[in-house]
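Lecture 7 notes: from sequence to structure.

We start with a single chain of 217 residues. Read the sequence below before looking at the structure.
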Amino acid sequence: MSADNQQGNQTTNDSQSERDKVKAERHKARQQKVKEGVDAKIAKAQTEKGVLLVLTGNGKGKSTAGFGNITRAVGHGKKAAVVQFIKGNWPCGERKVLEQVGVEFHVMGTGFTWETQDREKDTQAAQAAWQAAEKLLQDDSIDIVLFDELTYMVTYHYIELERVLAALKNRPPMQHVIITGRACHREIIALADTVSEVQPIKHAFEAGVKAQIGFDY
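Now the structure, written as tokens:
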């Protein structure tokens, strides 16, 4: 290789190194701004209170996310409870695990409303499950409660909206509550501290894939 080629290669390498250095400095400056913004939010967020979390939308994963919160709480030594609305008595993997670590469960047990096709029976079952929920919402020893698929009970008028709102508002101040289900009522959303909407992009069931134990339930 000639001296001119060697010098040219060195110049190219030096230029690339300089560009890499500039990119690294710019990245560091951007991340520093991000850090400053995050630190400012952390410094501002000093309130401690029970949080009402709503997981709604038509996508898969709302109940799974709710159970994830319950598992996290139990892992930190918190006392948790779950009320399952709509779900039937088929095997529930989360319940099998969480009951073993002391999580209290109340299961409506009638299954989906399109299976029972009995409004009176569904209403009675929903009311019984909500009575258990109200007791949990009055118990300050319970740190976190999951009301799985509660939104349907309000939508179908099996449980009065005002009754739900009153119990949520009057719960112990440090008690966290998670509500899952589609089409959450706007007044519950307005009351909530955090709301996440899960939207479907693809779903295996729509392509003819059956619900499978250990993955879907």
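The chain has a mean pLDDT of 88. Keep this in mind for problem set 3.
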